[in-house]
Amino acid sequence: MKILIMTEEFAGNGHHKAAESLLKTMKKIDPRHEVKIVHLLKIINQTLEQWIQKIYLFIILKKPRIWGWIYKKEGNFSLLFKPFIAYAMLIKLDRYLKEENPDLIIATHASGLTVLAKLKKRYHYQLAAVFTDYHVNSFWIHPKIDYYFVGHEELKNQLVNKYQMKPERVIISGIPVDPSFSNVKPNFPHQEDANFRILVMGGGLGIGAIKEIVQSLQKIKNVPFTVCVVTGRNQKLYDELTQLAPSINYSLEVLPYIEDICSIMMKSHLIITKPGGLTISEALSTSTPILIYQPIPGQEEYNARFLIKNRSAIRIHDLNHLAYWVEYLYHHPRIYQKFIQHQKKISKPDSSYVIIENLLNRL
């Protein structure tokens, strides 16, 4: 078969990482199929893609409340803009699909789903939508989508009850993480460990109050700890933290964007992050307790609520409380292990395998 995995990168790296995880898994399960990752907006207009990313980053970094308001009104915006977006993409995407002639399209971003659903009848492919957050956004919804893959039972219930999707078309798979996350064992800290290892992240774009978190961790007392910060593709942050490291009163390792985040998480006892869908799914897969700070209003706010509802994370509203929670988790191993137990109930480390095996079986 010929399979296209449609995604985007303008809103961060998570959607693309999900696509890469599915491609890797397909190659492991059945390498005979031709699989390609496609960035939809690059097909339509690369300049438009660059401008959309600039606008998105400006809003979430400078005016996050505006993004939160837009996201809360997503149902209204969906009704208004979905037909317009589909019309704008139709001609170039039609031409592209005619050349590619795929048997299956998997979408890990909602931007082109409406037009992909409209063109299904013409090109006779199957269409699957793979959610990358723990919330149902109306932009993902179309009656002609064949299969939905969601992160948790709550999302399936929403699709079935609110959007009248047939239950057999909605599969609880988890958000697709790299196949290396399957069969990972929890890394329990022990008193004899030399260090309590803390991982600080801000997603692939390296955004959030990472520098402030690094400085705040200096308040920790009576805990032997080290910190690793992954700055993603934020070169400015990497340079700033590299220069700052010698003046910090603990051992600080600063890393740029890395592909093998699994190995880093496996060595970590705690992760401090904003709750991007992929990041928290990876943390859940490695049973790494999560401290959430400053979620982006919108999808990350819903992700944070999902984690807290399932007792799988602690949300920090004030960085003055950060050191307290690190100390508390270190000195209360029973509480620490309870977090891991709750995480195991909602983690889906085999998510990519579930998605690919389901699609191959159904096709």
Automatic annotation (TrEMBL):
Localized where?
Answer: Membrane
User: How is this protein annotated for GO cellular component?
Assistant: membrane
User: Can you give the residue ranges of the Diacylglycerol glucosyltransferase N-terminal domain?
Assistant: 15-177
One GO process term, biological-process aspect: glycolipid biosynthetic process
Keyword terms, alphabetized: Glycosyltransferase, Transferase
Q: Which GO terms describe its molecular function?
A: hexosyltransferase activity
Q: Which Gene3D superfamilies does the UniProt record give?
A: Glycogen Phosphorylase B
Q: Which InterPro entries would you find in this protein's record?
A: Diacylglyc_glucosyltr_N, Glyco_trans_28_C, Glycosyltransf_28_UgtP
Taxonomic superkingdom: Bacteria
Location of the Glycosyl transferase family 28 C-terminal domain: 198-318
Q: Family, per the entry?
A: Belongs to the glycosyltransferase 28 family.
The protein here is known as Processive 1,2-diacylglycerol beta-glucosyltransferase
Please report the organism this UniProt entry assigns to the protein: Tepidibacillus fermentans
